[in-house]
């Protein structure tokens, strides 16, 4: 009951002077306006801000569905799809085919002599891909910082990473996400099809877009920011030049802090490979927004989303659902199909 009351208070006080919005069963304040989330769930926590989801918050998110209309926010991919070089491509090869099964005869039970007189066979493929491929959900161990290579909650790469993957903050620590979602369509607000690479989204851009949409953010929301890059995705992202020309617009540090510390965003997403602006406008880190969100705040980042359907339909508030891959040791969710339900 205490968690439910705390969540309901969020909407009531989001614009007021009260800083206390969420409180866990132990009474500890989990989000403070102006400060954000931080490392507040204990020294062993690997979940971060997603701890704020409860049965009550999920039920409240589901109750806002009015039409049942579903928007697919994942990108279709094939072996020639655009990707950032640091994330790696997708390769797919057939692993079993009817021809191979029947000619190689490496399964006795599939042969006529073994009783398979009908000629039954099957087809399957082998995938070779990075765990940062396609529409992806950055885990809290994705980015490290400092001479000790630490990530969320002070975990260190030397202690938490083995030859066969992550032992802390891997994909299995990410719960299914069911929450209220908000689209901030910055590209449409700025009057362009897609923001140019290098454009830094400001706090004023976010506020202006929200005002134009008559939308608002509530603490605990999944906030998706549209830059417009994937209007060029087409069937499977084959126009690499058009995509590259619009890939590096994104959130500046001030905008990211406003979303998390001032508005209470629980997850941040976007439609580029990094969501933040590149190169960053202030030196000191190659990925300052990732460091702030993932490491300092425990806020996951969703990249390479298909936000075009929501933009076209002018749907700005919805129920958001995402279930990451449950691959032990992997950095986060990859090749995903999150959905928005109106």
From TrEMBL:
Which residue windows are transmembrane per the record? none
Concerning Gene3D superfamilies, the annotation shows: Putative cyclase (3.50.30.50)
| Pfam families registered for this protein in UniProt | Cyclase
Q: Where is the signal peptide?
A: 1-23
Q: Which PANTHER family match?
A: CYCLASE, PTHR34861
Q: Which GO terms describe its biological process?
A: L-tryptophan catabolic process to kynurenine
Q: What does the UniProt keyword field contain? A: Signal
From the Swiss-Prot or TrEMBL record, what is one GO molecular function term? arylformamidase activity
Q: What is this protein called?
A: Kynurenine formamidase
């Amino acid at each position: 009951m205490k968690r439910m009351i705390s969540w309901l208070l969020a909407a009531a006080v989001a614009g007021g002077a009260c800083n206390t919005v969420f409180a866990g069963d132990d009474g500890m304040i989990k989000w403070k306006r102006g400060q954000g989330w931080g490392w507040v769930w204990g020294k062993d926590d690997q979940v971060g801000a997603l701890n704020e989801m409860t049965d009550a918050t999920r039920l409240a998110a589901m109750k806002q569905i009015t039409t049942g209309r579903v928007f697919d926010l994942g990108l279709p991919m094939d072996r020639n799809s655009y990707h950032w070089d640091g994330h790696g491509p997708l390769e797919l090869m057939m692993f079993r085919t009817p021809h191979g099964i029947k000619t190689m005869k490496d399964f006795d039970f599939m042969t006529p002599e073994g009783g398979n007189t009908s000629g039954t066979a099957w087809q399957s493929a082998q995938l070779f891909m990075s765990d940062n491929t396609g529409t992806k959900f950055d885990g809290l161990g994705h980015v490290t910082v400092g001479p000790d290579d630490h990530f969320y909650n002070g975990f260190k790469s030397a202690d938490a990473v083995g030859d066969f993957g992550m032992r802390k903050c891997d994909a299995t620590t990410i719960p299914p996400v069911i929450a209220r979602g908000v689209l901030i369509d910055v590209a449409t607000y700025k009057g362009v099809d897609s923001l140019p690479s290098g454009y830094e989204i400001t706090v004023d851009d976010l506020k202006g877009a929200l005002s134009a949409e008559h939308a608002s953010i509530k603490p605990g929301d999944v906030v998706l920011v549209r830059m417009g890059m994937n209007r060029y995705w087409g069937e499977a992202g084959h126009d690499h030049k058009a995509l590259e020309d619009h890939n590096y617009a994104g959130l500046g540090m001030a905008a990211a802090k406003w979303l998390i510390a001032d508005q209470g965003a629980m997850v941040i997403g976007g439609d580029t490979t990094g969501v933040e602006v590149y190169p960053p406008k202030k030196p000191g880190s190659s990925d300052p927004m990732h460091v702030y969100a993932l490491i300092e705040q425990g806020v996951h980042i969703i990249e390479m989303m298909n936000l075009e359907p929501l933009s076209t339909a002018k749907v700005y508030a919805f129920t958001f659902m995402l279930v990451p891959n449950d691959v032990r040791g992997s950095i986060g969710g990859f090749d995903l199909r999150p959905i928005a339900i109106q």
